[in-house]
Amino acid sequence: MSTMSDLFQDLVEEILSRVPITSLRAVRLTCKQWNDLSKDSSFTKNHYGKEAKEIQVIMICDLKACLMSVNLHNHKDLADPSIKQIGKLNQVEIDSVFHCGGLLLLLLCNPKDNSKLMVWNPYLGQTRWIQPRNNSHKHRPAGRFNHRPAGRFYMGYDSNNNHKILWFLSMYFECEIYNFKSDAWTVLDVNTDQDHIIDNQRVSLKGNVYFIAHDILKEEAFLLSFDFTCERFGPSLPLPFHCCHEDTVLLSTVREEQLAVLFQKSDAYEMGIWITTKIELNIALWSKFLKVDMTLPNSYWFEDLSFFLVDEKKKVAMVSELDIETCKNYKTYILGENGYYREVDLRKSKGCLLMCSYVPSLVQIQ
């Protein structure tokens, strides 16, 4: 039989679970009990993390970073997925986002701002500004987008949970790493093959970053990793299909435990999604998750896919592509077995771009 204290605890949990993530910091100041509960790992796991029914994603809408919650479990026929905004970072304009274990690495748009990088934990309300090295701007031609640093930034952590940022310019095979503890950048000797081209597709999983890369000579794609403990690139890992540079290959994560890869061949009306059954720096084993036949009635051929995520329980995938007609807005679809297909409206705002899935964390920004 439940006691009053048990009921009160359940009620408090229910209240806190409905608070937008970006507002939790203010709620924690209300009382010590609420502060302790919101930072309890079991509460975070049940309401926001791996056990939660809702999938959280990061979107950039009108240059603002938004947290969106997607619930695919409300309706048996998936006809009306529940989608709501649960937070927003209004202070800065965002160019791109990279997610790593509950922390977000944000690249800012404002060329007048010397601090181009921000690390943000939406759940704890913590931020940290990081100054990129000046040479991250070299090789950048003059033009409309010359405020963007050349190369790309990625975040991970080593075996001691020390967070680091990798800057990599694949065209010139230049690489630097930033250590949160020392607050310093260090030049690395790149150990990748110069016949390899690293794609823009990249995700963080268990502290390491995984990329889609292409072998120019063999004309095939493979999986490549970066180990933040050894600070080196790992060996080439096979993908569960053969593809060329014209095909579409996207990476995603599943509850921060597995990798998922989407493949759509440029000359075939079929899409496939695979999930890893085992993933380490030197091994990748895959299992087919979903096959989409685009020759069926009411099906659709995707021309410019940019993002996807999967829901294992519902056996569905959510994919997003650029609207070719406007070249501004992004269309989002739910795909499932037996030809299930539906377009959904995530948010009526120009330039809304799905960036990555998100799992809240109690990790402190060092």
From TrEMBL:
Q: Which domain of life is it from?
A: Eukaryota
Xref: InterPro entries? F-box-assoc_dom_typ1 (IPR006527), F-box-assoc_interact_dom (IPR017451), F-box_dom (IPR001810), SCF_F-box_component (IPR050796)
Q: What is an example of a Pfam family matching this protein?
A: F-box
Q: Please list the residue ranges annotated as the F-box domain.
A: 7-47
- Write down the PANTHER family for this protein, in alphabetical order: BNACNNG10540D PROTEIN, F-BOX PROTEIN CPR30-LIKE
- Indicate what this protein is called per its UniProt record: F-box associated interaction domain
Q: Origin organism of this chain?
A: Arabidopsis suecica
